[in-house]
Write a structure and sequence with these properties.
By secondary structure, the chain is mainly β.
Length: about 550
Amino acid sequence: MGENNITVGCEGLLINSSSANLNLNPNQIIQNAYLYWAGSGTGDFDVDLNSIPISAQRTFTNISISSGLPYFSAFADITSQVVSTGNGNYTLSNLDVSQTLLNTSGYCTNRTNFAGWAIIIVYKDTSLPLNQINIYDGLQSIPNSINITLNSLNVVDNNNAQIGFIAWEGDSNLAINETLMINGNTLSNPPLNPANNAFNGTNSITGSSSLYNMDLDIYNIQNNINIGDTSAQIQLTSGRDVVLINVIVTKLNSQLPDASVILNSNIQNCDSRSITLNCSVTNFNCTSTLQAGTPIAIYANGQLVGQSQTTSVIPINGSENKQITINLPSEIADNFTITIVVDDTGNGQGIISEISENNNQTSSGLLTFFTSPIASTLESQTTCNTGLTQGNFNFFEYSTQSLTNTTDFFTGFYESAAEATLATNAIPNPNNYIANETPKEIFIRIENQNCFTISSFWLYTKNCPPTVYNYVSSNNDQANDTFFIDGLRDVFVNFELEIYNRWGKLIWTGNNSTPNWDGIPNKGTRVDNSAVPEGTYYYILNLNDNDYPEPITGWLYFRK
């Protein structure tokens, strides 16, 4: 409510809100809005702006002056709220330092009691030249001086160059060695800000000289910075008055790119040390294009493993997508981190001047080489030939027997390597699989988190001994109507079967191409097509198979 240097004591302890108006032109588009608040004490970090609760995202605390009393400041990005609200009245409330002042009398007796707030707004105006806006914040006390070096400049036009600041606790009646200088030149903005009284409770935006205990001032510096400058020196001094610098903002027509890189994805090949990196080189928050041929260095665990460069000029707020494949040498550990650095010739050095040199790299986080799972060796299976090398198989248990690692999982059985690779058309009945012909190769697919393995085993059939059913009743009752030998036809394809009567006379011969014997002879004296008499007959079966060199003989009983 008044200047501390004049007003003794702590006035206005119960004031808990204050307001200010925002009034941008229609062509001034808000890009960023930052709220700062500060005061005596160790901190109040939750406030309201237009009745919307705001919590500090960053804080600056326990800043002491010569008396040892602490001060604080807080920051919050309120861009979305200000963009939504636009022009109008902004009221900050619930910033309360009253208990600090009441319980710590030193603030009032030393006349260093205050609390306040400000919003810094960065806006875009297409009628203005491209400008580089730098915002430096913190909380530091003066006396005696603060020195700041502004780097990464490329001043191409000093017209309308400006510097502004937010400072707390300055008093107009204390003006001892109180200056703001740039490149050794003392700045002034009379009558609001004399050269010897930079921190005097003024507001350059409103023209107020009664912004007690706070300065929100903007100075033109176009005669204090030169075209071609790549840096600038700022110095703030105060010989007696306690001043707390919170924020410094500079606006310069500095034409510089700002190279940065984003790792979008990485593609690894299984069982390979080759990695493909999909990244984007960006040129955001800049005031100039980024030249083609800007170098890119790729590091694995800090070791240079690959290099590339941009291929085209990247415009302001533009980007270029890159796909870079690197082969990691054997000395790189299985667990590794990939770091991509733009504007790096491979030795940590760049070739271009940028607005910021601190945002040129990105890292992948910890990666591991992809390795395929290992399948157990599965034995082949052999079963009886059911005809023309066909067989029935059960290989269901191979789904678990094939795994060698508990983190691997079995996908399925497949009839071809192509189907296993695509994981399509899995065999639905591995516990009752009919192989239409053998030998038959069956493929399995095993996966882990990143890779898969295709393995296989073989199915075989063998000619098992046939089974003879030696009772024949040709009465057409669909049971035993012919002399049937199971496991013979289409298995022993070269067999020869002979049937004799009790006197040793050959009465019938057959092979794989003749029907089963139904009691009608096809050898010897035949008067008609009638069946042989009921009784016992004898057979000789020559399998003509190397595994069964001896004929099978026996008897059968025929009944009409």
